[in-house]
Specification:
Number of helices of chain B: 8
Radius of gyration of chain A: 20 Å
Helix content of chain A: over 70%
Distance between the termini of chain A: 30 Å
Structural class of chain A: mainly alpha
Shape of chain B: globular
Number of strands of chain B: 0
Number of helices of chain A: 2
Structural class of chain B: mainly alpha
Largest sheet of chain B: none
Radius of gyration of chain B: 22 Å
Distance between the termini of chain B: 61 Å
Oligomer: heterodimer
Strand content of chain B: under 5%
Number of strands of chain A: 0
């Protein structure tokens, strides 16, 4: 068992753990929005296929939905850089 | 061995001061922001000055009219409604300025998206925040405006405290923050993506020559993708602005 606290290069260990944490933050933050954007776009395509004359309205709403969903992933993206410092 | 050294993020977006120092120092990003403002002004100034009286516009006027038409039909009529036409100059200016600032990210020799620094998106988002709050208060009155935010129609009484709190925080605090962060993070991510492939292509070129074909080709393709992102983010910025203003003007929606 490695005694992490007694590690000689504690600074390197901290930097490494920060990088791992930043990676986990972005990975975790991307899961939900990934599923969400898939649902939004998939349903928008279904709507456009069923009613092509409403495509313009659906497209606007789809971009809005994407923008709101995507914001969560972008918060995670920014947080990654804040954590890495 | 590959000389693959990815520069730290601060080296990619922080530029040395050219004029002055402290918070009002002028660096490359500030110069580009000014250039963006001047280009936006010149674009519409030239478009209006050379306006032809005939039926068929040409030159700059043609492009300017296409931009105005796009904002009018696809942003204002979809987001606010016919009574939002007085926001046409504001939204057209914001759209063009954000687009010009984004497009600096892929122009060879400049390659720095101005919106990849938080200050510019944050300021734009604050302008939008003031605009829609002032519009809501002017259209509905102070009490009615905040009542319509906190009490959305069709919510059960038992859920009202929770929903009201969430709606209030979301409308007043999260909206401008998310608006700014969306633009900022998209441009920063695009910039980092281009830098990643440029560094990879450069390292592979100096070691193997032919190995640079794949990342170099991808770099060119991603530059095209960034053009799409620049247009899309400017569009999303103005359509969200329009939706916020429309929501403040027509509370029943």
């Amino acid at each position: 068992m490695i005694d992490f606290l007694a590690a000689q290069n504690a600074g390197e260990l901290e930097a490494g753990l920060k990088t791992v944490g930043a990676g986990i933050v972005y990975g975790g933050a991307a899961i939900g929005p990934g599923v969400g954007i898939g649902i939004v776009v998939g349903n928008a395509i279904t709507a456009m296929a069923r009613q092509p004359e409403a495509a313009g309205m659906v497209r606007t709403t789809m971009f809005l939905g994407i923008a709101f969903t995507e914001a969560l992933a972008l918060f995670g993206f920014v947080l990654t850089f804040l954590l890495k410092g | 061995m590959l000389a693959l050294e990815f520069p730290p993020v601060s080296h990619l977006i922080e530029w040395p001061d050219l004029l002055g120092s402290g918070p009002f120092a002028v660096n490359k990003v500030v110069l580009l922001m000014w250039l963006g403002g001047v280009l936006t002004f010149l674009f519409f100034y030239l478009g209006a000055r050379k306006a032809t009286t005939g039926l068929v516009p040409k030159g700059v006027q043609n492009v300017a009219e296409a931009v105005i038409d796009f904002v009018r039909n696809d942003v204002i009529l979809q987001g606010i409604g016919p009574d939002g036409m007085r926001f046409l100059p504001f939204l057209v200016t914001v759209f063009t300025f954000v687009f010009v600032c984004n497009i600096f990210g892929i122009i060879p020799g400049i390659q720095m998206p101005v919106n990849a620094r938080m200050a510019i998106p944050m300021f734009l988002a604050l302008v939008v925040w003031v605009t829609y709050n002032v519009m809501g208060i002017a259209k509905q009155g102070v009490l009615s405006y905040f009542k319509n935010i906190i009490v959305p129609p069709g919510v059960p009484i038992a859920l009202l405290p929770l929903i009201g709190l969430i709606e209030f925080i979301s409308t007043i605090f999260v909206r401008p923050f998310a608006l700014a962060v969306r633009l900022f993070a998209n441009m920063l991510a695009g910039h980092l993506l281009l830098v990643t492939f440029a560094v990879l292509a450069s390292a592979l070129f100096s070691s193997t020559y032919v190995g640079a074909i794949f990342p170099g080709g991808l770099l060119i393709a991603l530059t095209g993708f960034e053009l799409l992102v620049a247009v899309l983010q400017a569009y999303i910025f103005v359509i969200l602005t329009a939706v916020f203003i429309g929501g403040a003007m027509h509370p029943e929606h």
